[in-house]
Structures are given as structure tokens and as C-alpha cells.
Specification:
The protein has 327 residues and is an alpha/beta fold. 40% of the residues lie in helices and 17% in strands. It starts with a strand and ends with a helix. Bound molecules: nicotinamide-adenine-dinucleotide (NAD) and uridine-5'-diphosphate.
Length: 327
């Protein structure tokens, strides 16, 4: 039986990935310091004897023999990473170092959750993997953006110097059930606000864009990517003149934040919420949309869940969760 380690396994995406790995027959260990994660996300998984949970901060080294390590530990919502900026950079860099050392010691494959944020406020649209980005090194988002960029650098050098089998996935805005109601990202904020009849808070004038991927689509891509034989991966990226295996995953549908707010209100017709404009945080990227040509070619993958369908599933989750907690 294959053994997988999922760092950040009690978080939104880590819990979905852990569940999928269990369904695929793996023995799964989730490691998490519960900064933004929650035991509630994994309560059902804990009933499975092939699942175990370790409360640990990956900034400190850890043991264990694994075939595959999925490195997802890191707060992903701007509000949360900006509340603990030093810990965020250290998680990205020291955490990645500890993951890579474990892989080097045991021969595990590593799939690292990088981000579209490494493109910063992009000057190239849509963003292709070869684009090097436009990132502020000293702003309020830098702890995350530069931390994630440095993690990519470490992963690339462990691959070149020690031959570690590392695959990088640059994830564009992903949403779905099991996001925390106080996560702070736009989709969970708008849905929770609409369900509570509070005004939807649009930052800036709402003309900035994002592309929203449903969680199941991302997990499909991650599993397909990890399952590809290394020789096939190396040949593919070599032919594309990319030094390391790095893939965008996201849904190329691009929406303004104002349109997203309207769509969520359309899907929650009983809501009495209105729109409230708030100041735009600094360094907020103007627009974002993935070019997913490489993922389509390498994995035969593309997102299947349209925005309205993904939002409906996410709304259903929050309806239940909020009714529970408001009672
Ligand atoms: P999340 O905040 O729900 O999950 C992150 C998890 O990591 C949490 O459970 C948290 O407690 C844990 N964690 C944080 N620091 C840790 C540390 N030092 N040691 C151990 N555990 C730690 O966020 P998510 O959306 O599930 O994101 C998962 C990963 O995917 C992150 O690395 C994030 O950067 C990346 N990502 C997510 C998105 C997205 O839109 N969801 C986009 C790009 C990249
Ligand atoms: N945003 C917003 N209202 C909110 C939360 C976010 O208008 O309540 C905006 C935010 O300024 C950004 C976009 O929505 O332009 C996406 O924000 P999120 O925090 O979800 O992710 P980001 O892509 O910025 O990391």
C-alpha cells in the first residue's frame, strides 16, 4: 500500500486531497499545525484506519517514510497570511526545506502547492508558466508571494542538485465546500455574507478579475500529475524549454469581482444583502487568468465544473454549516 503525507491536511484543500488519496487506496498521514485548518474538516477521515493525523508545525523537521508528499501547509487567505507574515514566510521556506529533506532521505516524490501569486500583479495575460511575474518584495502580500517563490527555488535546486522528484503546481483561486466561514477569501466571504443578510463587501470598485476553480477539479489535476511517470514529465518539460516541472491549474473563466457578487446574490435569491464598497488592499492584483495549455497537454485534464454549479455546491455547504453554528 502506498503511503502519502499531506502537509496542511486539515485545511480546505488538504482535507479534500486526503479524502481522495484514501479513496485511491493510500495510507494517508495529514500533518497540520491547525493555524487555519480545523479538526472538523477531517473528523470523518479519522474514522478510517488508513488515516492518521499529526499536529505539527512543518517549520520544524519531521520523520516518517512516505512514497509521496503533497506540500499544502501554508495559510492561503490574504487576511490570515497577513496576520502572521513572519510565520508565513518561514512556513513557505523552512517548511519546504523540511519536506525536501524528507524526500531526499526517503526517495519520496513531492508535489508542491505553489500559487498564481508568484506572478504578482501580472503584466502578461493570461499567465503562462514561462512568465516570471511582477511581485513587490516588501509589500503586505510579499510574505506569501516571495515565500512561495523561494519555495519554488528550493524545490528546483533540490531537483537539480539531489535529483529529488519534485512537481510544482501553480494553483489559481480555488473554492469549494470546507472553506472556513471566516476564511476571508472572496467566495466564502460573499456566500456567508449573503446567507446572513449582511452586505457583500467589494474591495475597490470591483473591476479587478479572478478565475475561480472548483476544488474537485484541482484535486483531479494534482492526482493525475503525481501519477505521471518521471521520465514522461522530464521529457515533456524539456521539450517546452521549462527547467522544472511547473503547471498552472485553474479555471480560465474570468470574472470581475462585481460580477461574482451579482452571481452569488442571484443564486441566493432570498438574501436581503446589498453591496458595500470597501477600500482596495495594497498590491491587490488587477487581473488573473490561467493559461492551462500545458496541463491539458500533459494530463489530458481540464476543469469540468462551471462557476454556477461549483457555487451552488459551495452555497449548500455553507447553508448547512451556518445554520448549525447560528443555532
Ligand atoms: P487553508 O488555509 O485552508 O489550508 C492551509 C493549511 O495549512 C491549514 O490547515 C493550516 O492550518 C496549515 N498550516 C499553515 N501553516 C502550517 C505550518 N507551519 N505547519 C503545518 N501546517 C500549517 O488553505 P487552502 O486553500 O487549503 O490552501 C492549501 C495550499 O494551497 C496552500 O499552500 C496554498 O498556498 C495553496 N493554494 C491555494 C489556493 C486556493 O485558492 N485555495 C490558491 C493557490 C495556492
Ligand atoms: N475581495 C473582495 N471582497 C472580499 C474579499 C476579497 O472584493 O470580501 C477581492 C480582493 O480584493 C481580490 C479578490 O476579491 O481582488 C480575490 O480575493 P481573495 O482574497 O479571494 O484572493 P486573492 O486572489 O486576492 O489572493
Amino acid at each position: 500500500m502506498k503511503k502519502a503525507l499531506v502537509t496542511g491536511g486539515a485545511g480546505f484543500l488538504g482535507s479534500h486531497l486526503s479524502r481522495r488519496l484514501l479513496d485511491d487506496g493510500y495510507e494517508v498521514t495529514a500533518v497540520d499545525n491547525l493555524y487555519t485548518g480545523s479538526m472538523k474538516n477531517i473528523d470523518r477521515l479519522l474514522e478510517n484506519p488508513r488515516f492518521s493525523f499529526l499536529q505539527h508545525d512543518i517549520v520544524r523537521p519531521f520523520d516518517g517514510e512516505y512514497d509521496e508528499i503533497y506540500n499544502l501547509a501554508c495559510p492561503a487567505s490574504p487576511i490570515h497570511y497577513q496576520n502572521s507574515p513572519v510565520e508565513t514566510t518561514l512556513t513557505c521556506v523552512m517548511g519546504m526545506h523540511n519536506v525536501l529533506e524528507r524526500a531526499r532521505a526517503t526517495g519520496a516524490k513531492v508535489l508542491h502547492a505553489s500559487t498564481s501569486e508568484i506572478y504578482g500583479d501580472p503584466m502578461v495575460h493570461p499567465q503562462v508558466e514561462a512568465y516570471r511575474g511582477n511581485v513587490n518584495t516588501v509589500g503586505i502580500r510579499s510574505c506569501y508571494d516571495e515565500g512561495k517563490r523561494c519555495a519554488e527555488t528550493l524545490a528546483s535546486d533540490y531537483r537539480r542538485v539531489y535529483g529529488v522528484d519534485v512537481r510544482l503546481v501553480r494553483i489559481f483561486n480555488t473554492y469549494g465546500p470546507r472553506m472556513h466561514p471566516n476564511d476571508g477569501r472572496v467566495i466564502s466571504n460573499f456566500i456567508v455574507q449573503a446567507l446572513r443578510n449582511e452586505d457583500l463587501t467589494i474591495y475597490g470598485d470591483g473591476s479587478q478579475t479572478r478565475s475561480f476553480q472548483y476544488s474537485d477539479d484541482l484535486i483531479d489535476a494534482m492526482r493525475l500529475y503525481m501519477d505521471k511517470p518521471r521520465a514522461e514529465i522530464d521529457k515533456f518539460f524539456d521539450e517546452k524549454n521549462l527547467e522544472v516541472p511547473v503547471l498552472n491549474t485553474g479555471n480560465p473563466g474570468e470574472y470581475t469581482i462585481a460580477t461574482l457578487a451579482k452571481e452569488i446574490l442571484r443564486l441566493i435569491p432570498e438574501s436581503k444583502s446589498k453591496i458595500a464598497m470597501r477600500p482596495l488592499p495594497s498590491d491587490d492584483p488587477r487581473r488573473r487568468k490561467p493559461d492551462i495549455t500545458l496541463a491539458k497537454e500533459l494530463l489530458g485534464w481540464e476543469p469540468r465544473v462551471p462557476l454556477a454549479e461549483g457555487l451552488e455546491k459551495t452555497i449548500a455547504y455553507f447553508r448547512e454549516r451556518i445554520l448549525d453554528s447560528d443555532e
